[in-house]
Amino acid sequence: DGGITQSPKYLFRKEGQNVTLSCEQNLNHDAMYWYRQDPGQGLRLIYYSQIVNDFQKGDIAEGYSVSREKKESFPLTVTSAQKNPTAFYLCASSLFGQGGTEAFFGQGTRLTVV
Amino acid sequence: GQQLNQSPQSMFIQEGEDVSMNCTSSSIFNTWLWYKQDPGEGPVLLIALYKAGELTSNGRLTAQFGITRKDSFLNISASIPSDVGIYFCAGHLRNTGKLIFGQGTTLQVKP
Prior knowledge:
Chain A is mainly β and 114 residues long. Chain A has strands spanning 4-7, 10-13, 19-25, 31-37, 43-51, 54-57, 64-66, 76-78, 87-94, 103-105, 109-113. Chain A is built from no helices and 11 strands. The termini of chain B are far apart. Chain B has strands at residues 5-7, 10-14, 19-24, 29-37, 44-49, 55-58, 61-65, 71-76, 85-93, 99-101, 105-110. In chain B, 0% of the residues lie in helices and 56% in strands. Chain B is an all-beta fold. In chain B, strands 2, 4, 5, 9, 10 and 11 form a 6-stranded mixed β-sheet that branches. A 5-stranded antiparallel β-sheet of chain B has the order 1-3-8-7-6, with no helix packed on it. Chain A binds chain B through residues 6, 31, 33, 35, 41-45, 48, 50, 56, 58-59, 88, 90, 92, 94, 97-108, 110, and chain B through 1, 6, 29-31, 33, 35, 40-45, 48, 50, 88, 90-92, 95-104.
């Protein structure tokens, strides 16, 4: 089945450790996105990528890093520099970047830092 | 960054009532998307709009892409208990690849 997969669904880390969240899609989509969602809040854009080997900062990129070495994969690293990393992280993909088409989401990863 | 202003923030309605929510922005969008999110899950796409003035339906849901390309609304007719959830608008910002979201409308339906 085609889709977008995030793993793991729940992740626990100690404060000060970097952690990488996985996002894989087999939809042959060009663009991929990472969002952060806090309780009762909307989705805030962290990073996005329109093509392989290129990505742009979103509205809250500080303390995060990404790579886009393959079309199918867009991993997000939450670094120790992120001051409040506990949140629900959502990855999405869409067919074209600038033109804009439907975007589909994974099931999310809930990160808890203790 | 750019913002989408979504309203109302929450709604508590009786089963069978119609619901309307909207999003506005000072920026121009190529695409408007409407999503529904259940607790602990990723948002699910309900309706996609691509042209200014476009009116699109999906069952009891109807959405429109504003003429100015800066706003959109979503209507839900004859609400049922399973409509409960958080509804988000989203837009692809013109001339960038950014997909940004509104703050969400929390819908509760009383049987």
